[in-house]
Automatic annotation (TrEMBL):
It comes from the Eukaryota. GO terms for molecular function: ATP binding; helicase activity; hydrolase activity; nucleic acid binding. InterPro entries: DEAD/DEAH_box_helicase_dom, Helicase_ATP-bd, P-loop_NTPase, RNA-DNA_Helicase. GO terms for biological process: nuclear-transcribed mRNA catabolic process, 3'-5' exonucleolytic nonsense-mediated decay. This is Helicase ATP-binding domain-containing protein. Pfam families: DEAD. The keyword Nucleotide-binding applies. Keywords: ATP-binding, Helicase, Hydrolase, Nucleotide-binding. It comes from Phaeomonas parva.
């Protein structure tokens, strides 16, 4: 929900909707924040000819851009297939933007997306302005063995 609140502040609450498994707010908004699972279900429903009642903004013909945050979850054992299914099923006219701060094989993923979607994929990498590429904030790992 923090992205939803950020977008409401930036674009106005009337222009932003939220759709999760538990919440549906302003589903006809031009900008929708939703879980990847909800988007995947919309894509599957559309390909099966099922009409969903999510609102006008989710008519797939009207979708210009799909932003997938935390794209490194593509490699997740349990949820990664959802990201993959979205890339494969997303309408060709919709631009895909995949964001990740921790993706180690970004060039490989960009090449894969180019192959799947049959369009050039541009990889944009951000190099932090810190000495030796250090993180701007600390990264702490914890291990628990029960």
């Amino acid at each position: 929900p923090h992205r939803y609140l950020d977008f409401c502040e930036e674009f106005g609450a009337d222009n932003v909707g939220l759709v999760t498994g538990d919440v549906a707010l302003n589903r006809a908004a031009p900008l929708l924040v939703m879980t990847t699972e909800i988007l995947r279900n919309i894509l599957y429903s559309a390909s099966a000819g099922v009409v969903e009642s999510f609102g006008a903004a989710t008519e797939l013909d009207d979708v210009d851009v799909v932003v997938l945050d935390e794209f490194h979850y593509l490699g997740d054992r349990w949820r990664g297939t959802v990201w993959e299914e979205i890339v494969v099923s997303c309408p060709d006219h919709a631009r895909l933007v995949a964001l990740s701060a921790t993706c180690l094989n970004a060039a490989d993923l960009a090449a894969w997306m180019s192959e799947i979607k049959a369009v050039p994929t541009r990889l944009v990498a951000f190099e932090p302005r810190t000495p030796q590429g250090a993180r701007p904030g600390p990264l702490t790992f914890h291990y628990c063995n029960s």
